[in-house]
Amino acid sequence: MIKFDHMNLPVTDPRSSRDWYVSHFGFRVEFEVPERETVALIDDGGFTIFLYRTPAQLAGVRPALTLQVDDVDEKAEELEAAGVKLAVRPQANQWGYGAELDDLDGYRLMLWDERTMREKSSIS
């Protein structure tokens, strides 16, 4: 068996990033290591993202995260109501149907859900 278990994500401010991911997407804090300025966030499926402070953004490195949500259109409305700017409103695009936004460090988040991917995507 192979299972994607966790990833490391360098951020400029682990506490601010923690609060942003928790408040907007419902990640839970698994644990924190304050002396290492590291926060472990876990999703509902058991996947962990380690947020850790980096002295400066790495040139040319721009990871993208794809998050499955219950309903892309509803989540987009919720985020906009909370003041989060979407880079791409929900629409059919080259990877299917979904929305895109950037987190506090400029990492691209792509949001999708199973129903709209089947019903609104041009990908079969």
Describe, in plain words, how this protein is organized in 3D.
This protein is of the alpha/beta class and 124 residues long. It folds into 2 domains: 1-55, Signal recognition particle alu RNA binding heterodimer, srp9/1; 63-124, Roll (2,3-Dihydroxybiphenyl 1,2-Dioxygenase, domain 1). The protein is 23% helix and 39% strand. The chain has helices spanning 14-25, 72-81, 114-120, and strands at 6-11, 28-33, 38-42, 48-53, 64-68, 86-93, 96-102, 108-112. Strands 1-4-3-2 form a 4-stranded mixed sheet, covered by helices on one side. Strands 5-8-7-6 form a 4-stranded mixed sheet. A hairpin with a 5-residue loop joins strand 3 (38-42) and strand 4 (48-53). The chain is globular, with a radius of gyration of 15 Å. It starts with 5 loop residues before the first strand and ends with a helix. The mean pLDDT is 90.
